């Protein structure tokens, strides 16, 4: 039985996962030694690097669990757990060092592959030039000059195309700017029209309110006149209401004039 299982099932599980990763790392580096292709070596190193990251994470979890159990374990148990953690860290560091060494070797190979052809190509050109006659050298020089002139012409064309594109872009931006200015002016005009319309609506509202007051006053006057006429018709002898022309009885006036004479 695993002694860690008696202490903590979680510690035993973490240790088992770390052991599996160390076994996979050992097999991976053995496989890496047999690979000759640089690209395959790079992919293998990336895979091993991912395993080492996972192992580092598990060791941190192991250390966290050990610290959580320090209060419940005795001194010997805590020492045993810390020693196991240090052993795991040392083994992981050894794989990290091997990975760095392989990475350095791959980088050096890439530099050699990058610089090698250029040096070989230059050396080949020197050998070819030394084996040429003067006429061949002149022809070769003329061809190189023609190639250079063509490259210059292509560069000029590229520059001209770039200038044309820049000119077209500037013209398009100018047109868009003018269009935006027109839109802004139209928005200002619309805003001014809305403001004037609002003022006109307010004036019409005030005028309508005034007209309503006048109509109401006239309506009250008409109602009063109608009321007076009705009262006069119902009670013609009422002295409290002044006579309205055309409503007073004419017979009484004629009788008074007759008696006076």
Automatic annotation (TrEMBL):
GO molecular function, one term: SNARE binding
Cited SMART domains: t_SNARE (SM00397)
GO cellular component, one term: late endosome membrane
InterPro entries: NPSN/SNAP25-like_N_SNARE, Sec20_C, T_SNARE_dom
Subcellular location: Membrane
Location (main, coarse): membrane
Keywords: Coiled coil, Membrane, Protein transport, Transmembrane, Transmembrane helix, Transport
Residue stretches making up the T-SNARE coiled-coil homology domain: 142-204
Biological process terms in GO annotation: protein transport; vesicle fusion
Entry-linked CDD domains: SNARE_SNAP25N_23N_29N_SEC9N
Stretches that traverse the bilayer: 214-234
Mode of membrane association: Single-pass type IV membrane protein
Coiled coil: 45-72
Recorded family membership: Belongs to the novel plant SNARE family.
Protein's name in the database: Plant snare
Species: Quillaja saponaria (Soap bark tree)
